[in-house]
Amino acid sequence: MTNHKQPHFILVPLMAQGHMIPMVDLGLLLAGRGVLVSVMTTPVNASRFRSTIERARLACLPIHFVELRFPSAEVGLPDGFENIDVVARMEYAHDFFRATRLLQQQVEDYIRERSPLPNCIISDVCHPWMRNVARNFGIPRLTFSVISCFTQICEYNIRHYKVLDSLEDQKAPFAVPGLAERIEVTKAQVPGFWVGWEEMAKEVYEAEFAADGIVLNTFEAMEDVHIKSYAKAMGKKVWSLGPYSLCNKTIAPMAARGNKASIDAAQCLSWLDPKEPRSVVYVSFGSLTHMKPSQLREIGLGLEASGHPFVLVIKKTETNAEVKEWLLEFEEKIGSRGLVIKGWAPQVMILSHPAAGGFMTHCGWNSTLEGISAGVPMITWPHFADQFLNEKMAVDVLEVAVSLGVKEPTNWGVDDVPFVVPRDEVERAVRRLMDDGVEGRARRGRARKLGEKAKEAMEEGGSSHANMTHLIEHYTH
Ligand code: UDP
């Protein structure tokens, strides 16, 4: 299948929806430019993207999956535990990452059989072992990171200046050094996911330093300064190629993105279509957060009290008997003013609908950037990992969001999100975001302009489009 003149890139995502979805979008963008793209992943993960890849195949895009057997038995994980959203608990997470390392042999076997060898590897930053693969075959390797460049440079500076070493108090705010703007965070809010994973964090940083370049889902008009400082700090090229989600231009690919949606696209659109432009608040907390029933109820009641129409996404795994019982009564009460999606939502389709007017988000970087790309202002409720810094980016740097004021990170995989935000705070934040006063209008205007710039970046002549041209040329010749 390899055409000797066609560039061939290998993409190796981490198996988590917040990593797989943007990497598949990036693969589609590369394939749209004529690059042969091999996305290497395991069967459970490939099956979630089957319809996306099938659509690409019908459009003659040269992208395909290379399926790798997930070594669950070798590490003692149950069958099917191939994605972080299934792993879900911290006690399995170490085994999961141990299993990902064991994929190295299969990746190498595939590469060994290619002639000519692939031109470039783009591998998730959480696969530091891909460094060895690239070295063994002499193939250039770019790391793929799913956080904003602002968050990257903040984390870099905090490490570089050893800020955390001298801090005792987990809750005392400190200013991130080396930034043009004054950004305050607490020790508890950074470095998020890496607490208890210090050894892996070290390996990840070292592998990123050793890479040939860094690929980021961002765009120059939004954070040129951060891109330049991060490139300088790392001493290598930082390729800003996003927002990748904008490669999904029509309803069908938007609705099929990630997992199979729990609501039919037509049903969702028939709810959204009659709503006033920019009137609906979309509420979703990504693929990994887990709320307790009491917190879900408070969110629902706060949305109801706000008086604005809303879409509330509740995960299947959060929908226990208690939640189901409450929803029976709640859905009846709110009628057509609210839509509750139980399971996976077609997020990008909803956000890009003209009725979308606000987004309450957990600040995962994909979601944040999808809100930015749609030109929709946000309410931020970070939970863990990079999310607190992404909140700072949206609220303080870009000024397109209002904060719900949550300061304490949650313990992913250990505790579900307890009741931390009462209904009146949810109501107040929604009213503030949707307000038609001077502040609300100015925020909406900034969000709309930023959304336009995001789209421009991805069009021909835009910065991300041009960067992708250079990247392909750079690794093909
Ligand atoms: N997503 C979606 N529907 C859902 C939940 C999530 O399409 O019901 C997508 C969302 O659009 C984003 C990704 O899943 O692309 C979640 O990534 P993010 O970085 O926002 O958060 P994470 O899930 O990694 O915490």
UniProtKB/TrEMBL annotation:
Region Disordered: which residues? 457-477
Which SUPFAM superfamilies has this protein been placed in? UDP-Glycosyltransferase/glycogen phosphorylase
Q: Which UniProt keywords apply?
A: Glycosyltransferase, Transferase
Entry's Gene3D superfamilies?
Glycogen Phosphorylase B
* Coiled coil (UniProt feature): none
- EC annotation from Swiss-Prot or TrEMBL: 2.4.1.-
Q: What residue range is the signal peptide?
A: none
Q: Which GO terms describe its molecular function?
A: UDP-glucosyltransferase activity
Q: Top enzyme class of this protein? A: transferase
Matches recorded under Pfam families: UDPGT
User: Which family does the similarity line name?
Assistant: Belongs to the UDP-glycosyltransferase family.
Q: What is this protein called?
A: Glycosyltransferase
Origin species: Canna indica
